[in-house]
Design brief:
The protein is an alpha+beta fold. Helix content is 48%, strand content 17%. The chain folds into 2 domains: 38 residues, no CATH class; 65 residues.
Length: 119
């Protein structure tokens, strides 16, 4: 899966994202010139990175929406308190999962080429 993939950004524009290879090919024998070797740990971590990146993006969008609603005055003090607590718990869980998969914060900020960083 080496190369680049296309994805939509939060602005609706398409961007190419460079992904590291998850498999390697090597010559095994004359009868089987190439064998696909899949590195299970890299596949698992790559999938975790992708999922956590999407969850982090959604978390940031929810935070922005919450701020807009607070600024507009459409939330009660109780709702603001509940929303703030929920967003803090969500951020803590994202941090915990990032550590479980040994990912740095910048690993969840994909480079979208000419569009810049995702987050």
């Amino acid at each position: 899966m080496e190369g680049s993939k296309s994805m939509l950004t939060h602005t609706g524009q398409r961007a190419k994202v460079e992904l590291p290879p998850l498999t390697t090919q090597r010559r095994v024998s004359e009868n089987n010139p190439r064998k696909l070797e899949i590195d299970g740990d890299r596949v698992r971590n790559g999938l975790a990175q992708l999922v956590l990146t999407l969850v982090k993006l959604l978390h940031e969008l929810l935070e922005r929406q919450a701020i807009r609603r607070m600024d507009s005055g459409s939330l009660t003090n109780e709702e603001i308190e509940h929303l703030g607590l929920t967003l803090m718990q969500q951020a803590e869980e994202l941090e915990r999962l990032r550590e479980v998969f040994d990912l740095k914060d910048e690993d969840l900020n994909l480079n979208l080429g000419p569009l810049g960083r995702l987050l």
